[in-house]
């Protein structure tokens, strides 16, 4: 019955929009638009792209477009006419473009779910102001204070979910870990029921982020909107609690919300409004929760398959563990010694980018590459197209962490797993801290093997393994303060 209502509504919408679409074409840019087709109104190429993401063939979808239309083409994606760009020059253009030309506006699904005042949406002075506030919490000097807290969450997680288990689903467990870490440092919420209520809401919002923007009760988009409506008052209550603690001088300034509430302009007024704090907490929560868990899951899969890389990583972490007492927490200095592990993680993100798509919106007509990007149109990048370009990375399908050795850095704007330029992700060092600390404790305490070496994954929009990446786990023999014998 619900499906029939959906199909009927969609048909009626198309009957209204299609005649308008074809009877009144945009003739202003006749001959100046890039090649390609906008497809049907509202739907466009969204369904084809979503299907490619679900079958992990999104790179093929983009390659076919580039083969057919070149590095600049037009399409209609997630409710907006879109210009699709490819190449390092395109990456530089998008990541460094003046906010008066390209705004950081996201597709309507992302904007509605994540909020319009998050850093992903802001441009110009607003972006600089909010970014500065977030960076004040995520800068190295501050993160160094949180290594012990992250280490504590990891050790508790392994003791609870890995020790004594013979088989585990690695991806859900990595999500549990990163969720608990981010809850602790962003929300300042300790383990317990309050945390548990948040998990399904963030999951529904993440799955709705890239979806067909049809707000009917049984759609992913609707579930994401409902989840946001439930989450916002929960965050607002938390903000008020922390504000009261600040007023009473009882706050410890050890979480993001308290940090943002404490920042003042030169005249003493708060730098960020409550709505801005809510939206940016949501953005950072989702980014820290899902993206890092994906990277950790891919690391688990790689180390089970690649014995050479596994041996090198174990050797690196054995050396660190040999200089520490049993169960002693990691320090920031320990993390700086995990250079090979981070090169491996960087190469994983080159091949399987956790967040592959980037969006902008043209604020005015823009001339680019001999074509016009019309005002109001989306601009979309797919990072993997430069990551897997054989002219940039030799033998791009081969896993080779030496690509990121000190003396082998890739050309500018060719590797964009964390963005680039002024739009570089401010949470990169936070993600690095989580990843390195977890891999240290994992490889020094366990060995594992894949139960299904051919287990595939889809992107919804983040990679999601069919069986959660099933692995068989064995504890390692420990002697001499945690060194694997």
TrEMBL record:
Listed GO biological process terms: sterol metabolic process
Molecular function (Gene Ontology), one example: monooxygenase activity
TM ranges: 6-24
Keyword hit for Oxidoreductase: yes
Chief place where the protein resides: membrane
Annotated membrane topology: Single-pass membrane protein
Keyword annotations: Heme, Iron, Membrane, Metal-binding, Monooxygenase, Oxidoreductase, Transmembrane, Transmembrane helix
Location(s) in or outside the cell: Membrane
Binding residue positions for heme: 425
Keyword Phosphoprotein: no
Any single Gene Ontology cellular-component annotation: membrane
InterPro entries: Cyt_P450, Cyt_P450_CS, Cyt_P450_E_grp-I, Cyt_P450_sf
Cofactor(s) recorded in Swiss-Prot or TrEMBL: heme
PANTHER family reported in the protein's UniProt record: CYTOCHROME P450 26, OS07G0520300 PROTEIN
Assigned protein family: Belongs to the cytochrome P450 family.
Protein's UniProt name: Cytochrome P450
Organism: Tagetes erecta (African marigold)
């Amino acid at each position: 019955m619900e499906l029939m209502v959906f199909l009927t509504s969609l048909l009626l919408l198309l009957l209204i929009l299609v005649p308008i679409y074809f009877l009144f074409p945009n003739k202003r840019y006749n001959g100046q638009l890039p090649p390609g087709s906008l497809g049907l109104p509202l739907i466009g190429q969204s369904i084809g792209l979503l299907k490619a993401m679900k079958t992990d063939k999104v790179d093929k979808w983009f390659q076919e477009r580039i083969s057919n239309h070149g590095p600049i083409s037009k399409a209609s994606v997630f409710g907006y006419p879109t210009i699709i760009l490819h190449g390092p020059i395109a990456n530089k253009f998008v990541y460094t473009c003046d906010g008066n030309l390209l705004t950081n506006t996201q597709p309507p699904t992302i904007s509605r779910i994540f909020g319009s005042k998050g850093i992903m949406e802001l441009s110009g002075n607003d972006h600089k102001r909010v970014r500065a506030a977030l960076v004040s919490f995520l800068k190295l000097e501050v993160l160094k204070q949180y290594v012990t807290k992250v280490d504590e969450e990891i050790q508790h997680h392994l003791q609870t979910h890995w020790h004594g288990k013979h088989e585990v689903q690695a991806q859900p467990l990595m999500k549990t870990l990163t969720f608990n870490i981010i809850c602790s440092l962003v929300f300042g919420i300790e383990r317990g029921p309050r945390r548990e209520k948040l998990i399904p809401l963030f999951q529904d919002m993440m799955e709705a982020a890239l979806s067909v923007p049809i707000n009917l009760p049984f759609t992913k988009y609707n579930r994401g909107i409902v989840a946001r409506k439930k989450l916002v008052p929960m965050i607002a209550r938390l903000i008020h609690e922390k504000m009261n603690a600040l007023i009473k001088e009882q706050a410890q300034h050890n979480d993001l919300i308290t940090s943002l509430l404490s920042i003042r302009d030169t005249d003493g007024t708060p730098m960020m409004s409550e709505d801005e704090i809510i939206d940016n907490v949501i953005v950072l929560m989702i980014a820290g929760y899902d993206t890092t868990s994906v990277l950790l899951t891919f690391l688990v899969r790689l180390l089970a398959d690649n014995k050479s890389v596994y041996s090198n990583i174990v050797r690196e972490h054995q050396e660190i563990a040999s200089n520490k007492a049993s169960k002693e927490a990691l320090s920031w200095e320990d993390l700086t010694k995990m250079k090979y592990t981070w090169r491996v993680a960087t190469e994983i993100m080159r091949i399987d980018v956790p967040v592959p798509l980037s969006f902008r919106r043209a604020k005015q007509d823009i001339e680019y590459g001999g074509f016009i990007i019309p005002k109001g149109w989306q601009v979309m990048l797919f990072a993997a197209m430069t990551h897997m370009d054989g002219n940039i990375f030799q033998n791009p399908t081969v896993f080779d962490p030496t690509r990121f050795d000190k003396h082998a850095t890739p050309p500018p704007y060719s590797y964009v797993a964390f963005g680039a330029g002024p739009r570089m992700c401010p949470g990169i060092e936070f993600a690095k801290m989580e990843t390195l600390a977890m891999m240290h404790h994992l490889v020094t305490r366990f060995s594992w093997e894949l139960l299904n070496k051919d287990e595939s994954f889809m992107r919804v929009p983040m990679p999601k393994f069919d069986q959660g990446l099933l692995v068989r786990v064995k504890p390692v023999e420990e002697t001499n303060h945690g060194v694997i014998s």
